[in-house]
Amino acid sequence: PMEATGSAALLSSQNPLAAAADGESAIVQAANDCSLVVDNMLNSGPGSLREAINCAITNGLDDVIILPAGEYVLSGAANEDANVGGDLDLTEANHSITIRGAGADQSIINAGGNDRVLHVFQGVTVVLENLSVVGGSASNGGGILNDGQLTLNDVTVRNNAAVTGGGIHNTGQL
């Protein structure tokens, strides 16, 4: 069941805009829905970027994650594909995920040299906006390994390292 939360500015993985009783826009969110709201810079747990991505890749919907200004340093084991640690694994095929930062010089996702920053899986559509991808290191795609469909709008990809595709290794559509 869906419940209206009024005309709040909360982003949801559910119907992003619905008509409220007073005719104003309202955000609608399922009562048991996970959150796409990033409100801390921790690597994991409630309010983290990783947790918002976990929500987005499991809810069966197209999603927008708002990434406030700050540096989001990733940690954990590299070379796993379940978004548990290391890189951010975008795995939900046939749906889109948009990660929208506050500006390329303000919202920074940093892999700290531990793993690549982002892995876009086959069949996944990802839009990155107004953020930076830095500090990635992997054999292919130090910053981003793209096997899906990737769009970059006002994104800086810098200071990443790899044997192939230091910034971006693309086997999908870029």
Secondary structure layout:
Layout (H helix, E strand, L loop, with lengths): L1 E3 L13 E2 L5 E2 L1 E3 L18 H8 L6 E5 L2 E4 L14 E3 L5 E6 L5 E4 L7 E3 L4 E10 L2 E4 L3 E3 L2 E10 L2 E4 L3 E3 L4
Parallel strand pairs: 5-8, 6-9, 7-10, 8-11, 9-11, 10-13, 11-14, 12-15, 13-16
Antiparallel strand pairs: 1-4, 2-3
Number of helices: 1
How helix-rich are the residues, as a percent range? under 10%
**What is the distance, rounded to the nearest whole angstrom, between the alpha carbons of the first and last residues?**
37 Å
**What is the strand tally?**
16
Structural class: mainly beta
Q: What string, H for helix and E for strand, traces the elements in order?
A: EEEEHEEEEEEEEEEEE
Uncertain ranges: 1-32
Outline: globular
Percent range for β-strand residues: 35-45%
Please, could you describe this protein's structure?
With 174 residues, the chain is mainly beta. Helix content is 5%, strand content 40%. The protein has one helix at residues 49-56; strands spanning 2-4, 18-19, 25-26, 28-30, 63-67, 70-73, 88-90, 96-101, 107-110, 118-120, 125-134, 137-140, 144-146, 149-158, 161-164, 168-170. The strands form five sheets. Strands 5, 6, 8, 9, 11 and 14 form a six-stranded parallel beta sheet that branches. The radius of gyration is 16 Å and the shape is globular. Mean pLDDT is 84; it is low at 1-32.
Descriptive terms for the model:
174 residues, mainly beta, 6-stranded parallel sheet, 1 helix, 16 strands, globular
